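Private note to self, pasted from the team thread so I don't lose it. Backbone tokens:
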């Protein structure tokens, strides 16, 4: 099975910063106690754990076994885990009540396959719902910088396909499954400075940590300078801190 860069660094640190946006999707879809929820491309299980906390029967699925292993077992407050690819889900048709994915299945290269698999395993009447980064926001711009730098070194870094990064394209991508709703959200994270953001990213954020092992030292230093400039540009600057604003999109479809 293919792997991603997500076993590198310490994704738990990033997941903690993402949590408010992941809880936004869970609250919006409001899965009921007892319902079966697939957290698709779960990483360390932000969504699955939140759903389990609401009494749902949640399952976390990801390609990276190292991330799934950070979850406690069900008997200790965790959830069952499955290693799998969102483009070929190892689940029966109509196996779950809802499929939720925060900043996860959007990184797979084939949006049509992702949607056809998500709607196959979701029973009619349930939600397939996801969050993605808005095309004009910080994350896609940072990823594009990373991808350009790595491409110059002959490496490939997946970016989110355009099918998931605007309100219009999300409507198009999800609409074969049913009636689509899309809304915006904004994640705000505080850092003492752009340099402090870089310190966190270069030690914890998997795609950045992976880049360090693949780039020359000077290319990596230049990448860091460019990313810090982008952080400054996308932040509000206050008293001894900056607030990094990251625009995201939430989309859901009730499967016909
Ligand atoms: C940015 S993380 C998001 C993790 C989690 N959903 C969260 O909100 O914290 C992206 C995740 O997608 C997973 N991923 C990427 N491509 C995948 C695929 N084709 N199938 C399953 N998981 C995948 C990565 O391993 C990683 O855990």
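Design output:
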């Amino acid at each position: 099975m293919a792997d991603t860069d997500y076993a590198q660094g310490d994704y738990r640190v990033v997941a903690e910063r993402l949590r408010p946006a992941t809880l936004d999707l869970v609250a919006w879809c409001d899965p009921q106690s007892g319902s079966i929820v697939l957290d698709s491309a779960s990483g360390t299980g932000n969504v699955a754990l939140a759903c389990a906390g609401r009494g749902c029967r949640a399952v976390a699925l990801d390609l990276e076994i190292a991330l799934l292993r950070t979850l406690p077992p069900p008997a200790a407050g965790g959830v069952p885990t499955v290693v799998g690819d969102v483009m070929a889900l190892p689940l029966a048709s109509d196996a779950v009540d809802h499929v939720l994915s925060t900043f996860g299945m959007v990184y797979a290269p084939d949006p049509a396959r992702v949607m056809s698999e998500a709607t196959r395993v979701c029973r009619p009447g349930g939600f397939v719902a996801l969050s993605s980064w808005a095309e004009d926001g910080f994350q896609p711009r940072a990823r594009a910088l990373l991808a350009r730098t790595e491409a110059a070194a002959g490496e490939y870094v997946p970016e989110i396909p355009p099918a998931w990064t605007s309100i219009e394209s999300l409507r198009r991508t999800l609409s074969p499954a049913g009636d689509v709703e899309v809304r915006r959200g904004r994640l705000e994270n505080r850092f003492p400075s752009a340099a402090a953001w870089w310190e966190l990213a270069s030690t914890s954020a998997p795609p950045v940590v992976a880049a360090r092992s693949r780039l020359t030292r000077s290319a990596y230093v230049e990448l860091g300078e460019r990313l810090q400039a982008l952080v400054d540009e996308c932040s509000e600057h206050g008293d001894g801190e900056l607030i990094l604003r990251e625009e995201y999109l939430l989309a859901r479809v009730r499967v016909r």
